[in-house]
Amino acid sequence: MPGLFKTEAVVLRSFRYGEADRILHLYTPDRGRIGAVAKGVRRIKSRFGGRLEPLFRVALVLHEGRGELATVTSASTIHPHARLRERPESLRRAGQACEAVLRLFDTEEPNAPVYNLLCRELALLDERAEAATRAQALAFRLKLLLAAGFAPELAACASCGEREHLGAFSASAGGVVCVGCEAGSFPLDRSAHEFLVEALTRPLADAPAAPESALAQADRAIAETLEHHAHVRLARVA
């Protein structure tokens, strides 16, 4: 029913609207992705200050009317992620993380693990400059695949169940494949396979290191899985 509601959110993206307003794309733990308008936010004396910029984690009160957009009536900062904004690489990785969530989880269906994962990624990038690596970004995307229900099969051939000779990856099959089932796949080195397994099972803060060649193969595996199963195409992680 229309009315006021409270929620936490990460501001994924914002756009200018009219003379003083902004349209916000928000991701919340209890309502999934929602759109909202922040009226007067671009005025110098706005009551919202700078609290509704992208990458902010905020506590909100919103009014839900009959339209598609809720209206922000109150906002307070939980985490501004100010330090990552001072480091170009951290800022770029944070933008990639928000874009991935925006594209992959575009409905109002709640997914608290996705919200918590995004908050953890932004906090890591804010706390540690060394977290802004390709390996870390790929680990985040792989965990998003898991949260979306599209995690690739990595323990056995996705086609026949064979557990040996897993030297290729097939998005259409759903994961790694063996020599006998590798038609339509691409080669996956042992180091790339190990990276995918460890990145999926380790905590986000403990993303494994890997050679650039392995990361490139892992990036391709993640990207092709997203395209084939989620019908989402994201820019490769560079």
Q: What's the CATH topology name of the largest domain?
A: de novo design (two linked rop proteins)
Classify the beta-strand content into a percent band: 15-25%
Helical content band: 25-40%
> Which sheet architecture does the biggest sheet show?
5 strands, mixed, barrel
Number of helices: 5
- Compute the number of structural domains: 2
Uncertain stretches:
none
How would you portray this structure in words?
This protein is α+β, with helices and mostly antiparallel strands and 238 residues long. The protein has two domains: 3-79, OB fold (Dihydrolipoamide Acetyltransferase, E2P) (Beta Barrel); 84-230, de novo design (two linked rop proteins) (Up-down Bundle), CATH 1.20.1440. The chain has helices spanning 88-104, 112-127, 134-148, 190-201, 212-230; strands at 3-17, 21-28, 32-38, 57-64, 70-79, 166-170, 175-178, 186-187. Helix 1 (88-104) packs antiparallel against helix 2, helix 1 packs parallel to helix 3 (134-148) and helix 2 (112-127) packs antiparallel against helix 3. The relative contact order is 0.12. The model has no long low-confidence stretch (mean pLDDT 94).
